[in-house]
Amino acid sequence: MKLITAILQPETMDAVIEALTTLGIHGLTISEAHGYGRQRGHTEVFRSATFTVDILPKVRFEVVSEDARVNEVVDAICAAAYSGQIGDGKVWVTPVESITRVRTRETGADAL
């Protein structure tokens, strides 16, 4: 099993949820995040004053998937979040040693 983590633009949240639902993903975690990547924020002008916004709002998705479906899930996230602009986000995959469903004590793929 793998943990798929994605840091994406907030406006892509609904499209990513829809893409994952279409794949039959039964569970995911979404949380607010703030940060920056290579672009290091952006500059805004408000009432003739220029402000540098260094920390940008993002959305963090976390999905645990069976190994065989990882590429499919990553591809769906990337396709749904793609705008072609700097700051679209990042997706990374990390191994999951074990997983247990608290209610039933099921483990492994059965716990997903």
Structural commentary:
The relative contact order is 0.31. The longest helix is centred in the last third of the chain and has 12 residues, at 70-81. The protein is an alpha+beta fold. Helix 1 (13-22) packs antiparallel against helix 2 (70-81). The protein has a single domain (2-111), classed as Alpha-Beta Plaits. The termini are close together. The chain is 20% helix and 37% strand. The model has no long low-confidence stretch (mean pLDDT 91). It contains 2 helices and 6 strands; from the N terminus they run E-H-E-E-E-E-H-E. It has a 4-stranded antiparallel sheet with strand order 2-5-1-6, with helices on one face. It has a two-stranded antiparallel ribbon with strand order 3-4. A hairpin with a 2-residue loop joins strand 3 (42-46) and strand 4.
Which regions contain 5 or more consecutive residues with pLDDT less than 50?
none
Report the average pLDDT across residues.
91
Helix segment tally: 2
Taken together, the total number of domains comes to 1
Shape: elongated
Structure summary, number of beta strands = 6
Proportion in helices: 10-25%
The CATH topology is what?
Alpha-Beta Plaits
CATH architecture: 2-Layer Sandwich
Determine and state the CATH class.
Alpha Beta
Structural class designation = alpha+beta
Output the radius of gyration. Answer: 17 Å
Percentage of residues in DSSP E strands:
35-45%
* Biggest sheet: strand arrangement: 2-5-1-6
What does the main sheet amount to? 4 strands, antiparallel
H-E string:
EHEEEEHE
Family: Belongs to the P(II) protein family.
Pfam families: P-II (PF00543)
Protein name: Nitrogen regulatory protein P-II 1
InterPro entries: N-reg_PII, N-reg_PII-like_a/b, N-reg_PII/ATP_PRibTrfase_C, N-reg_PII_CS
